[in-house]
Amino acid sequence: MKDIVKITSDIISLDEIAKAVADPKAGAISTFSGTTRDNFEDKEVKTLAYEAYIPMAEKSIQSLITSARQKWNDLIHIAIVHKIGDCPVGETSVVIAVSSGHRVQGLEAVHWLIDELKVQVPIWKKEVYTNGGPNGTDGGEMWKANNTLP
């Protein structure tokens, strides 16, 4: 079993990460790829900017992986890679890849891992807007709180 935990300012490749968790014993590789969208409410998003306390973030991610392995015993390899720095529209900010003997446990684990990552890992996101300010001017920026999905 291999765990890959990485916080990086580099562009993230879903294909490379999926290949890193491949294994002959795996019947499935389940993935999640989070990308920057161009809108939030009525504002046009220019980019996201991520900051992290890297040692603590990596330790928190490893703890999530350990918990996932306790919840689902069919997981083989797990990779979680998160971007820090600017992440423009269309670029990947986070990838989670899990190889497993069967698809159900891998899919459930990926879903749980992204939800828990957003709540527990000290990575902070700032949205930078191109509009939404007074009279259609630059909309500025806003730090977003990590939380669970509604």
Automatic annotation (TrEMBL):
<comment type="pathway">
    <text>Cofactor biosynthesis; molybdopterin biosynthesis.</text>
</comment>
<feature type="binding site">
    <location>
        <begin position="102"/>
        <end position="103"/>
    </location>
    <ligand>
        <name>substrate</name>
    </ligand>
</feature>
<keyword id="KW-0501">Molybdenum cofactor biosynthesis</keyword>
<dbReference type="GO" id="GO:1990140">
    <property type="term" value="C:molybdopterin synthase complex"/>
</dbReference>
<feature type="binding site">
    <location>
        <begin position="125"/>
        <end position="127"/>
    </location>
    <ligand>
        <name>substrate</name>
    </ligand>
</feature>
<dbReference type="GO" id="GO:0006777">
    <property type="term" value="P:Mo-molybdopterin cofactor biosynthetic process"/>
</dbReference>
<dbReference type="Pfam" id="PF02391">
    <property type="entry name" value="MoaE"/>
</dbReference>
<comment type="function">
    <text>Catalytic subunit of the molybdopterin synthase complex, a complex that catalyzes the conversion of precursor Z into molybdopterin. Acts by mediating the incorporation of 2 sulfur atoms from thiocarboxylated MOCS2A into precursor Z to generate a dithiolene group.</text>
</comment>
<dbReference type="GO" id="GO:0030366">
    <property type="term" value="F:molybdopterin synthase activity"/>
</dbReference>
<protein>
    <recommendedName>
        <fullName>Molybdopterin synthase catalytic subunit</fullName>
        <ecNumber>2.8.1.12</ecNumber>
    </recommendedName>
</protein>
<comment type="subunit">
    <text>Heterotetramer; composed of 2 small (MOCS2A) and 2 large (MOCS2B) subunits.</text>
</comment>
<dbReference type="InterPro" id="IPR036563">
    <property type="entry name" value="MoaE_sf"/>
</dbReference>
<keyword id="KW-0808">Transferase</keyword>
<feature type="binding site">
    <location>
        <position position="118"/>
    </location>
    <ligand>
        <name>substrate</name>
    </ligand>
</feature>
<dbReference type="InterPro" id="IPR003448">
    <property type="entry name" value="Mopterin_biosynth_MoaE"/>
</dbReference>
<keyword id="KW-0963">Cytoplasm</keyword>
<comment type="similarity">
    <text>Belongs to the MoaE family. MOCS2B subfamily.</text>
</comment>
<dbReference type="InterPro" id="IPR028888">
    <property type="entry name" value="MOCS2B_euk"/>
</dbReference>
